C-alpha cells in the first residue's frame, strides 16, 4: 500500500519524476484521518503542490495512456487549460447509473492493480477526498459536495489537500476507460473500499449507482477538508466532521485508517524523509509511517499512538488528540484493545462517508455481491419432528435435531432415501416374523 489515505490525510505533491505505477507506494499520501497540513504548512505546501501539479499535468497530458485522464470524453466534459483558466463543454445531463456487471469486473481489476502497485493508501484517500467535501447544511446537489466524481477535474485536484491525487487518477484511468459503464464517483468509492479490504481490513457494506457531476463549475470550493495541525485539533475535527453529519465515534474510527501508509515532508510538510520502516519501500523508499507494518490494515495505529514510544512513527496533532480529548479517548482506548470492535465501527463509518452527498440511480443504490446469496435456513421447530401434545424440553429438542441431522436430515430437507437399506430392513423383519410364527 503506498503512503497514506485520508479524509484527514496529509497532502503530498507529485514530482515530475514520479515512478511508474509498479512503484505506486511512492504515490500514496496520507491516511484516513488527516487531509490537510497545518495552516502555516498548508500555504507552503499549496504553493509547492501547484508548481509540482503543473509539471505532472504536462507529463500526464503527453502520455497516450492517460490522454483522457481527467474525463471520459464520451460521457464527460473536456477540460482545457488556458491563460484565462479552465474552460469546459459540459453535457446537459448527468451520467447514468453504473452497470452492476461492470462494477464487479472493475473490482477484480482494482485488486490486480493493488497486488502489483501497492497503492492501497492513495486509493483510499481518493475516495475519502471526493466524499469529504459534503456539507449537510446544503440540500441541493451537487452544491452540497460529497461523492460525485468532482475530484477528477483539474480545479479541484489543485486544492492543497489533494496534492498527489493526480497519480491515483492516472492509475485508475485505464480501468475507467475499460469500463465506461462505471461512473467516476462509483469508481473512486469502489477503489477505496476494495483497498481497505485487500489490505486485511473489514468488508465494507457498500452500495453503488452514484451520479457524476459533469463540469468543473460543479466542484466544491476549497477548504472543506480537515487540517492535520490546527491550533485546536479536537474542535477543528468536530467542526469539519460534524458538518458532514459524522459523530465522535466515527471520527476516531476513521482516524484508524492511518494504520496504512506514510507521509513525505517534501509533499505534505509533515514527517521525516526516511525511517527504518520506510527506507526499503516497497515502492519508492522514504517518508514516515504511522505504524510499523504500514501496509496492513489493523488496529496498530491506536496502539502505537497510545504508547508514543517510537520516534520513527508519525504522530500528528490530530492523531494525538484522540487520546487527549475525553470523548475521543473512550473510543480510541476501546479500539486499541479490541480490533474486532474497531473493524465493525470502521466499516460502518467508511460506508457512511462514501455515501455522503451522493445522488443514486436507482435511488436505493446497487449492491454487488461476490456470488448469489443463499436463503436463510428455515427455523427449527421441534413439533415438525415429534408427535404428541406435550411440549418438548429444549434439551430434548436439541437431541432430536442432532440425531436427525446425524443420519443426513435437516429441518430444510427430508431424509435421503436408501432403497437397498429399506429392502434389507424389510427382509430382516420378515425373517423375524417367519421365525416367530414357525416356532
Low-confidence stretches: 1-6, 9-49, 51-96, 372-376
Computed Rg: 28 Å
| Average residue pLDDT | 77
Strand order of the largest sheet: 1-2
Mind describing the biggest β-sheet?
A: 2 strands, antiparallel
- Class from secondary-structure proportions: mainly alpha
In percent terms, what proportion of residues is strand? Answer: under 5%
Shape field: elongated
End-to-end Cα distance: 85 Å
**Count of beta strands:** 4
Please tally the helical runs, counting DSSP H or I stretches of 4 or more residues.
15
Percent range of helical residues: 40-55%
N to C succession of SSEs: HEEHHHHHHHEHEHHHHHH
Cofactor: heme b
Catalytic activity: L-ascorbate + H2O2 = L-dehydroascorbate + 2 H2O
GO biological process, one term: cellular response to oxidative stress
Protein name: L-ascorbate peroxidase
What does this structure look like?
With 439 residues, the chain is mainly alpha-helical. 43% of the residues lie in helices and 3% in strands. It has 15 helices and four strands. It has helices spanning 39-61, 100-117, 120-131, 154-157, 166-178, 184-198, 233-244, 248-255, 265-268, 300-307, 317-324, 326-337, 339-355, 394-406, 419-438, and strands at residues 79-82, 85-88, 262-263, 288-289. Strands 1-2 form a two-stranded antiparallel ribbon. A two-stranded antiparallel sheet has the order 3-4. It starts with 38 loop residues before the first helix and ends with a helix. 48% of the residues are buried. The model is unreliable at 1-6, 9-49, 51-96 and 372-376 (pLDDT under 50). Residues 182-408 form the Plant heme peroxidase family profile domain. Residues 1-21, 258-285 are annotated as: Disordered.
Amino acid at each position: 500500500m503506498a503512503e497514506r489515505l485520508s479524509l484527514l490525510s496529509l497532502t503530498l505533491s507529485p514530482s515530475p519524476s514520479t515512478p511508474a505505477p509498479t512503484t505506486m507506494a511512492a504515490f500514496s499520501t496520507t491516511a484516513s484521518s488527516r487531509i490537510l497540513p497545518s495552516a502555516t504548512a498548508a500555504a507552503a505546501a499549496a504553493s509547492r503542490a501547484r508548481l509540482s501539479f503543473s509539471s505532472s499535468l504536462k507529463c500526464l497530458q503527453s502520455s497516450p495512456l492517460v490522454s483522457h485522464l481527467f474525463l471520459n470524453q464520451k460521457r464527460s466534459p473536456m477540460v482545457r487549460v488556458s491563460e484565462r483558466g479552465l474552460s469546459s463543454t459540459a453535457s446537459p445531463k448527468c451520467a447514468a447509473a453504473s452497470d452492476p456487471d461492470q462494477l464487479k469486473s472493475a473490482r477484480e481489476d482494482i485488486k490486480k492493480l493493488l497486488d502489483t502497485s501497492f497503492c492501497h493508501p492513495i486509493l483510499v484517500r481518493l475516495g475519502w477526498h471526493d466524499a469529504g467535501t459534503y456539507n449537510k447544511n446544503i440540500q441541493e446537489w451537487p452544491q452540497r459536495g460529497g461523492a460525485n466524481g468532482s475530484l477528477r477535474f483539474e480545479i479541484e485536484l489543485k486544492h492543497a489537500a489533494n496534492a498527489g491525487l493526480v497519480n491515483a487518477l492516472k492509475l485508475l484511468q485505464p480501468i475507467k476507460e475499460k469500463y465506461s459503464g462505471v461512473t467516476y464517483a462509483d469508481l473512486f468509492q469502489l477503489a477505496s473500499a476494495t483497498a481497505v479490504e485487500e489490505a486485511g481490513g473489514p468488508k465494507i457494506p457498500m452500495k453503488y449507482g452514484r451520479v457524476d457531476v459533469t463540469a468543473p463549475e460543479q466542484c466544491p470550493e476549497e477548504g472543506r477538508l480537515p487540517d492535520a495541525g490546527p491550533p485546536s485539533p479536537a474542535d477543528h475535527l468536530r467542526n469539519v466532521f460534524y458538518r458532514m453529519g459524522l459523530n465522535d465515534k466515527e471520527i476516531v474510527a476513521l482516524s484508524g485508517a492511518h494504520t496504512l501508509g506514510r507521509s513525505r515532508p517534501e509533499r505534505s510538510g509533515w514527517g521525516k524523509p526516511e525511517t527504518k520502516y520506510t527506507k526499503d519501500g516497497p515502492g519508492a523508499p522514504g517518508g514516515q509511517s504511522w505504524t510499523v507494518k504500514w501496509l496492513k490494515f489493523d488496529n496498530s495505529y491506536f496502539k502505537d499512538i497510545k504508547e508514543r514510544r517510537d520516534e520513527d512513527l508519525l504522530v500528528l496533532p490530530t492523531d494525538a488528540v484522540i487520546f487527549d480529548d475525553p470523548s475521543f479517548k473512550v473510543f480510541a482506548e476501546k479500539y486499541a484493545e479490541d480490533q474486532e470492535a474497531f473493524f465493525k465501527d470502521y466499516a460502518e463509518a467508511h460506508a457512511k462517508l462514501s455515501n455522503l452527498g451522493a445522488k443514486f440511480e436507482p435511488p436505493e443504490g446497487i449492491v454487488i455481491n461476490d456470488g448469489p446469496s443463499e436463503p436463510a435456513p428455515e427455523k427449527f421447530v421441534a413439533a415438525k419432528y415429534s408427535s404428541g401434545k406435550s411440549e418438548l424440553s429444549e434439551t430434548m429438542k436439541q437431541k432430536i435435531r442432532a440425531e436427525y441431522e446425524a443420519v443426513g436430515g435437516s429441518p430444510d430437507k427430508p431424509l435421503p432415501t436408501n432403497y437397498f437399506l429399506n429392502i434389507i430392513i424389510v427382509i430382516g423383519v420378515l425373517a423375524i416374523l417367519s421365525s416367530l410364527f414357525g416356532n
